[in-house]
Design a protein that fits this description.
Number of domains: 3
Structural class: alpha+beta
CATH architecture of the largest domain: 2-Layer Sandwich
Largest sheet: 8 strands, mixed
Shape: elongated
Distance between the termini: 81 Å
Strand order of the largest sheet: 5-4-3-6-2-1-7-8
CATH class of the largest domain: Alpha Beta
Number of helices: 19
Number of strands: 22
Helix content: 25-40%
Bound molecules: adenosine-5'-diphosphate, magnesium ion
């Protein structure tokens, strides 16, 4: 038999390697931006077209490459960052595998321009599917610009599996945020389809967080700091009141390298225990500084998983530091400081004696505020709407439907619609359910769900009629958004206006809210808009009608009375009556029941 084993040509080997390193446009963004930071740049610009599917370009003012290096940088395992094995245990740069450029060049068309400070003339290269098509001198500014075009042009299967532009853009933003957060002293810009999404001037970490996530983060950040033999730790945690339902801003870095760790995440979660509602997630920006020989960054090709030598101790350090910060800044109730410093690490390992905590009290912080504000926001939902059906008509329909549902012999007769408020018996259970007694039985309403249904139908009618009724604010409220959020918010303004919102752009990424829909009078504007942004910023339907509906839904859900709100009898009756006037009173926006009717036959079943 003849020999059959051959070495793969470089182009194929590189494509295989690329499979691990370059999964989507965001991977290119990460690798190029990290290279710029490694090259000592203090200005980095990212230009993206069509969520990176058409173009990803990174321009930096770093040290650039010589003629030979420019060529060499494209070879697999070509790196300037390590020379021997011992270097593997002392990595301070982001890259070191020498794989990224080779991988990118294997799966896209790459155009590189680069010049070092001591050379007057730069280099220009064009590479397509690992093949250098052109290399010539060019004039270019000091630093490097790499443009990656038509990613996966030669791997159709890969290209086909790319997600929609918003999803790919979300991934790109994630990578951009990570690199920008890790390097606040570097200036970053991001343009997408000719629109500037971010301009982040050199600053400190706090300013950087605000630059990315919006000014309203400023008073939500609580510093965290710890120095031990094993690891130094600093950064910010976000106050519990700002915790969100969806996974939001959770950032861990070690030696300025972003990493994921569900283990360390759970340490933070534990520290927040009892301070945030179930299924909410704490947000944090935490930086570990450890001796590089105590971590292994080499276990994952894109290096987002990192092995720590002494994970359990670091877990304990992290958990107690977070707890202590929450305590020091009076975010958490009382905490035992003594206990909170005694983690697994022996005390003498603490580099510094435990400092007297510097106490900065936020006098306005009140964990029960939520309840108060949502309560006051209800003042006006007793008011009927001119867009609703005549009550009698819908009552009848509803009862007919209900009697079918409950398989009753006798149709339910109700007298509630004519009854005076005083004669109706109401009751609230667990600040969540409203019980209304009628002659035939009791209605049990889920107050939040019922109110979302009412608001949604009202908003729908308002936006269709396009005859907004606005309640002007005595004190207009300014909301600060990030650049990206501002552009999504801007596109939702026409619809919000039809609902009765009176909102104008105000400064670069801010808006001023002068009026709210009359049916939402007294709403907590900041909270509602923050929630609204959470709903729409990552997932904006491209279809206009779908977007309109999404806005209405989100606004209904965000401005509805929350569970936990105490209701007066009047409010409960109004809730019930308004619900019964809806076209689809039985279900909320997710199709779940808004109320159940317990009548004699139903109750009998319960006792079976
Ligand atoms: P790694 O970053 O792991 O070394 P890469 O494939 O990302 O591998 O880059 C290969 C080499 O090319 C780097 O080690 C560096 O010397 C050079 N290089 C890449 N990008 C730049 C840049 N923006 N500026 C200067 N040099 C760069
Ligand atoms: Mg690299």
């Amino acid at each position: 038999m003849t020999d059959i084993i051959k070495l793969l040509p470089d182009s194929i080997a590189n494509q295989i390697a690329a499979g691990e390193v370059i999964q989507r446009p965001a991977s290119v963004v990460k690798e190029l931006m990290e290279n710029s930071v490694d090259a000592g740049a203090d200005k980095v610009q990212l230009i993206v077209k069509d969520a990176g599917k058409t173009l990803i370009q990174v321009i930096d003012n770093g040290k650039g490459m010589t003629e030979t290096d420019a060529r060499m940088s494209l070879e697999r395992h070509a790196t300037s960052k390590i020379t021997g094995t011992e270097d593997l245990f002392n990595i301070r740069t982001m890259g070191f595998r020498g794989e990224a450029l080779a991988s990118i060049a294997a799966v896209a068309r790459m155009e590189m321009k680069t010049r070092t400070a001591d050379s007057d003339i730069g280099q220009q290269l064009v590479i397509e599917g690992s093949e250098v098509k052109e290399q010539e001198f060019c004039s270019t500014s000091k630093g490097t610009s790499i443009a990656v075009k038509n990613l996966f042009f030669n791997i159709p299967a890969r290209r086909k599996f790319l997600k929609s532009d918003p999803v790919e853009m979300r991934h790109i933003l994630d990578e951009f945020h990570r690199v920008a957060l890790a390097n606040p002293e570097v200036e970053f810009k991001l343009h997408h389809n000719e629109q500037q999404l971010f301009f982040l001037p050199p600053s400190n970490l706090r300013q950087r967080i605000i630059g990315i996530f919006g000014k309203n983060y400023n008073e939500k950040l609580v510093p965290i700091e710890e120095e031990t033999e094993l690891a130094n730790l600093d950064g910010f945690i976000v106050k519990p009141e700002a915790a969100k339902k969806g996974r939001g801003e959770q950032f861990l870095f070690v030696n300025n390298r972003y990493f994921r760790s569900s283990y360390f995440h759970s340490a933070v979660v534990q520290a927040f225990e009892g301070l945030i509602p179930a299924n909410h997630h704490p947000a944090y920006f935490i930086f570990f500084d450890v001796d590089p020989s105590h971590i292994d960054v080499n276990i994952h090709p894109t290096k987002t998983e990192i092995k720590f030598e002494d994970e359990r101790s670091i877990y304990a350090i992290l958990r107690s530091s977070v707890k202590r910060s929450l305590g020091q800044y009076h975010v958490a109730p009382s905490l035992d400081f003594e206990q909170e410093t005694s983690f697994d690490v022996p005390h003498h390992q603490l580099k510094q004696p435990v400092k007297q905590p510097e106490i900065k009290v936020d006098p306005t912080y009140n964990p029960f505020d939520r309840e108060k504000t949502s309560k006051s926001s209800n003042s006006s939902w007793e008011r009927g709407s001119s867009f609703q059906k005549a009550p009698e008509e819908s009552w009848k329909e509803l009862y007919a439907a209900l009697s079918e549902k409950t398989e009753q012999e006798e149709p339910v007769r109700m007298h509630l619609e004519t009854a005076s408020d005083d004669s109706i018996i109401t009751f609230q259970i667990g600040r969540k359910y409203v019980l209304i007694r009628s002659d035939e039985g009791v209605f049990l309403l889920n107050q939040y769900r019922a109110h979302t249904r009412i608001l949604f139908e009202e908003f729908d009618a308002l936006s269709r009629a396009n005859h907004p009724v606005s309640q002007q604010q005595l004190f207009p409220v300014t909301v600060e958004l990030s650049a990206m959020e501002a552009s999504v918010f801007q596109s939702s303004l026409p619809t919000l206006t039809t609902l009765g919102f009176d909102i104008d752009p105000f400064g670069q990424h801010a808006f001023i809210v002068r009026g709210v829909p009359t049916i939402c009078e007294g709403m907590n504007i900041e909270e509602t808009i923050a929630g609204f942004m959470d709903d729409i910023r990552n997932d904006k339907p491209s279809n206009t009608e779908a977007f309109r509906e999404k806005i209405l839904r989100s606004m209904a859900q965000r401005s509805a009375i929350k569970s936990g709100t105490v209701l007066e009898a009047q409010e409960m009756i109004a809730l019930f009556r308004n619900l019964m006037r809806c076209t689809q009173p039985e279900i909320d926006l997710g199709g779940k029941s808004t109320f159940v009717l317990l009548n004699a036959p139903q109750i009998e079943k319960l006792f079976n």
